[in-house]
Amino acid sequence: MKYKDYEGPAEELVLMKIKEIEEKENVKVLHVVESGSRAWGFASPDSDYDVRFIYLRNKDDYLSLHDIKDFINWELNEVLDINGWDLKKALKHFHKSNATLFEWANSPVVYYSTNEWKELYENTAKQYFSVKAALYHYYGTANKNYNEYLLDDMVKYKKYFYVLRPVLACKWIEQKKSPPPVLFNDLTRSVLERNMELIVAELLGKKVRMQETDKAPKIDVLNQYIEKNLEYFKILANEMQDDRKPGWGPLEIKFRELLENSNDLSRSPLKF
Question: Is 135 found in the same domain as 117?
Answer without folding.
Answer: no
